[in-house]
Here is the input.
Amino acid sequence: MLSQILLITSLMAQPIWFEIGSAADRCSMEGCLVEATTTKPTQQHSENITKEQTSVFYEEDRFFLHYDLRKRIRDFLQEHPSQTRFIITGWTDGCGEHDYNKLLSKRRADEVARYVLSLRKGALVELRWVGEATGKHTIRARRVDVAVLKKTQQTITPPKIIYDYYLIDGSGSMSGPKWNKWIGAISYWKPRGAKVFVATANYLPHKTNLQNIRPAGATEIWFAIWGVLDLMKPGQTLIVISDFNSNVPLSGRERERINHKARTKGVRINYFKP
Here is the structure.
């Protein structure tokens, strides 16, 4: 009985080896890839807020708006005819006591605000008075700033990728923002007649739309490249988008076989790692 227990213990202590097998054995799909369809996305826009301003400058201890200062303000309002909201900020230089300078900066801002409201009926003014803009004695600090905030829209264009064939890694390590970004780029730029494939170890229905695919499973990108090369004609191009985070790294010999096949067929492969 004791010898049987020792024998079982000895067998259990031995390492157990699993055969990895070929990529074809590890994938649910033939060739570890499936053709996908795309739908061109609508143009995306981002909203930016920019600040534009002008400034009027004063002689020492002055707050009255003389003709040249009024003209500068009028010109600024004419450049922004649709603006009805203004930010007006008064400043002084570093001469004098702080309390006095703060009052002086308020008087300057008040004068400008009254003039703006006389030119732009119904406008809203946010009034600020700060006091010293600097500790130095300089006319650049003795000023009032008149500012407007403008909203602008900027078109967001995906990265430009134009190829005859697209192969994107559909493994779990590609999930998240990088997947969404690059399927968006493929869908936006794919020329008519170009083919899109997803490298996957899992089952996916033929011609599933890229937008409906959720990355999952292991990375089998190298075997999928071989399958796409079989479909290509001389002069055609292929882009491979993958993090290449495979549990079974490509050997130097296998890499050379892929490169040799591409050269023999007269096709070009570009690799991109997000």
In short: Residues 1-21 have pLDDT under 50 and may be disordered. DSSP finds seven helices and ten strands in the chain. The two ends are 61 Å apart (CA to CA). Helices lie at 2-13, 23-26, 67-79, 98-119, 177-189, 221-231, 252-265.
